[in-house]
Amino acid sequence: MLLEEAERAAREIPGLLADPAPVVRFMRASATPSLGFTLICQIAEFVDQFPVQHELRKRILKRFQKERIEMPYPTRTVYLREEGRSAGG
User: Fold this and answer.
1) Which long-range contacts (CB under 8 A, 24 or more apart) does 12-17 make?
2) What is the phi-psi region of residue 68: left when phi exceeds 0, alpha when psi lies from -120 to 50, beta otherwise?
3) Ranges in the chain, pLDDT < 70
4) What share of the chain has pLDDT > 90, as a percent?
């Protein structure tokens, strides 16, 4: 799905190159129970990177929503322990 969106975007977004073709790499997620991916795309000029990233991210997010893919939010478990109270406290 990421690759499909990147390939389509390469035909439509100015500055995003179709050659070399976009690549998706599966990345090990750090200590979280989620999957991580990196999308590698080439741009025509250095100045193209931010508008291309912006448009590509919007398209990917829209596709995720369409496919009902949810992004995990970081969670943290906090354990509280109650210690003895002092007199007057």
Assistant:
1) 13/52, 13/55, 13/56, 14/48, 15/43, 15/44, 15/45, 15/48, 15/51, 15/52, 16/41, 16/42, 16/43, 16/44, 16/48, 16/52, 16/55, 16/56, 17/41, 17/42, 17/43, 17/44
2) left
3) 29-33, 84-89
4) 61
By CB atoms closer than 10 A (0-12, 13-18, 19+), residue 2 is middle
Model's pTM, two decimal places?
Answer: 0.71
Q: How many residues does the chain have?
A: 89
**Separation CA 3–CA 24 (nearest Å):** 6
Residue 48: CB atoms within 10 Å: 16
